[in-house]
Design brief:
The protein is of the alpha/beta class. It has nine helices and 15 strands.
Length: 279
C-alpha cells in the first residue's frame, strides 16, 4: 500500500479552457494538497519546479487554444520539467489531441482541422472518437449530439469490466511510441482504439485521456439539458461508481509516481500494469 501523498498541483486556467470542475475533483482525490489555478505564464523551467502535477484540461467549443497557447518556448519548458524534474502531466480531451505528433479533427460543420501537435507522444490523435455517431450527418447543431458515454476497458490486461466517462468530441488515440502504454481502450468505438495512454518521459510521467474523467456522470441533472436527456432515456448517473473507480486508479498511479521520485522506488511495473480499481 502506498503512503498518503499530497502532490503540489497546478491546473492550467486560461480563457476557453474547461477547467472549472477539475479543482473539485482533485480536492477529492488528494485532500490536503495545494491546488492552484494558473496561467500559461507558469510554463517556464523555474516556475514548473513548484509543482508535481500539472493538469491541462479540455476546452469549451471546437477551436482549441492549445496550438497558440503552448509556444515553442513553453513546450521546451514542459519537456525539461518532465524529463529532468519528474513532472507528472495529465491531459484531457483537447489537450490530449495536442500531445501527439499530429492531430486530425472533424468539426460539427463538416470542416477538417488537421495540424501538428506537441510531439510528446509519437503517433496521431483522431476525432471525434464517436464520429460514427456524432458526425453521421453533417452539419449538426443538436445540443445533445456531442454528448456520449464512453465505455472504457483494457482487453490486453484481461480487465473484465468497463469504466465510464463522458465524451465531448474527444480523440481516439493511435500511439506509435515504444514508451507509450495503452491504459484504456474504447469499448463502443469501431476497432476499439485507445482512449487513454501512459508514457514515462525521462523522470516524468504523461497521462493522456480523451474522455472527461473529471465530470460526474450526475452532472446533467443540474443543467437545463436534463429534460432533453431524460426524454431520450439518457441517464448516465448509474455509471458514476465506475468513474469513481477509474479516478481511484489514476490517483494510485500519480501517487506511485510522486513517491518514486521522493524515495527512489521503482514503479515501472506499476505503470506498465496499472492497479485497475474494481467497480
Amino acid at each position: 500500500m502506498l503512503p498518503h501523498c499530497t502532490p503540489r498541483i497546478a491546473i492550467l486556467a486560461e480563457p476557453r479552457l474547461a477547467y472549472y470542475g477539475m479543482k473539485h475533483t482533485l480536492q477529492q482525490l488528494f485532500p490536503g494538497s495545494p491546488i492552484e489555478e494558473v496561467s500559461s505564464s507558469v510554463l517556464n523551467i523555474q516556475k514548473l519546479t513548484n509543482y508535481d502535477l500539472l493538469i491541462m484540461p479540455g476546452i469549451n467549443g471546437e477551436d482549441s487554444p492549445y496550438p497558440t497557447l503552448i509556444t515553442p518556448a513553453r513546450k521546451q519548458s514542459l519537456r525539461y520539467a518532465l524529463k529532468h524534474n519528474g513532472l507528472c502531466l495529465l491531459t484531457i480531451c483537447a489537450a490530449t489531441y495536442s500531445l501527439f505528433d499530429y492531430m486530425f479533427y472533424l468539426k460539427s460543420d463538416g470542416t477538417h482541422k488537421d495540424m501538428p501537435g506537441f510531439g510528446f507522444v509519437s503517433g496521431t490523435s483522431r476525432g471525434p472518437a464517436f464520429a460514427h455517431i456524432t458526425r453521421a450527418a453533417l452539419p449538426t447543431n443538436s445540443k445533445l449530439n456531442d454528448i456520449q458515454l464512453a465505455g472504457l476497458y483494457n482487453a490486453e490486461l484481461n480487465i473484465p469490466f468497463h469504466y465510464h466517462a463522458l465524451e465531448f468530441n474527444g480523440p481516439a488515440l493511435y500511439p506509435d511510441d515504444k514508451l507509450a502504454h495503452v491504459f484504456l481502450r474504447h469499448a463502443c468505438v469501431p476497432e476499439n482504439p485507445a482512449a487513454a495512454i501512459i508514457k514515462p518521459y525521462g523522470k516524468g510521467l504523461i497521462l493522456g485521456f480523451g474522455p472527461h474523467i473529471e465530470i460526474p456522470l450526475t452532472f446533467f441533472k443540474m443543467t437545463s439539458l436534463w429534460q432533453m436527456l431524460e426524454a431520450q432515456k439518457l441517464d448516465f448517473s448509474p455509471h458514476e461508481p465506475s468513474r469513481i473507480a477509474l479516478l481511484d486508479t489514476i490517483k494510485h498511479m500519480i501517487t506511485a509516481h510522486v513517491q518514486s521520485l521522493k524515495t527512489g522506488m521503482n514503479h515501472d511495473n506499476l505503470l506498465q500494469h496499472p492497479p485497475y480499481a474494481k467497480i
